[in-house]
Amino acid sequence: MKIPPYFPALILTILISCGPASEPQQTIPQLSALSDSIEQNVYKKVKAIVVYQKGERLIEEYYNGTTKDDIHDARSVGKSIASALLGIAIDEGYVKSLDQPISDFFDLQEYENYSEQKGEITLRDLVTMTSNFAGDDNDMKSPGNEEYMYDRPNWVKWAVDLPLDSTRKSGESWKYFTAGAVLIGDILNRVLPNGLEQYAEEKLFKPLENANYKWSFTPQEVPSTAGNFRTSALGFANFGQLYLNGGSWKGKQIISENWVKESLTPKVETEFKPNFYGHFWWIKDIELEGVSYKLEYCSGNGGNKIYLIKELDAVIVILASAYGTSYMHIQANEITKQFLLPIIRAKAKS
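Below the sequence we write its predicted structure tokens.
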């Protein structure tokens, strides 16, 4: 892929140093080159790019007819929002701990493929995707592949009915298992006062001053924590900033700092090296000109990302609708490494 040229970092630093968020962004060479690439369809179906640095808006760009107020389906980015709500529920005592077994919430003998081992699966196993349910979204032959869930009348029953994978021990190895995220949402809906939807509004979205969002729902009208949560680019960016702030927003602690830290700590190596997995968050390193930076991020089908870069005090949001394509995640990585990261690094040095 041919990448448009851009100016040296010294010139870039002079151009962007200390500029307010409203400064015309076409003065940033990399950003102009990126916008040209998106308009020329080198990078496809990109909807929005937002960058915060040091808590201030550095970049806010919209493409392909998207506006500031449009809400966007970022698919599995919604799992990370479910993680936040689980953390808040644990902080407030509605869930005892991640070590609670699913047998505390489901009478497993009423479901198919009952076994004592199934009852030992914990919330920790679900949120780290290390349960040994026979479910692997990356294998169409897997009985628990998410594609088989969506046409079922009861997603939760379908998930709990699944057999176990006899080749794995729960808590030890990773398989991407969306149905596990659905179980987390259903459990939260059961234990939270007035259900998950109202709890999320009161404990997460109102404190973040976000009224521009929309859930999708399971057939039982429970907010779907599988994904498909919609909000604006700035709504996703504010959520990322919340985590970059260690769970605080405008001086108020919304999520405990410990939950944020644990969520962003690698718990298990995934099949997609060099990626590790935390609590519905991904973690990997990215290198630019010999310098390595840790990316802690949410990821969704279509090439949707919320990246945190603590070393540079930055949040990157990329929204795109390249659903189901082979290039969706590749282009998000290229946009970040070849365009956005140099801008952020130059700004950090200014």
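Residues 199 and 323 are 30 Å apart (CA to CA).
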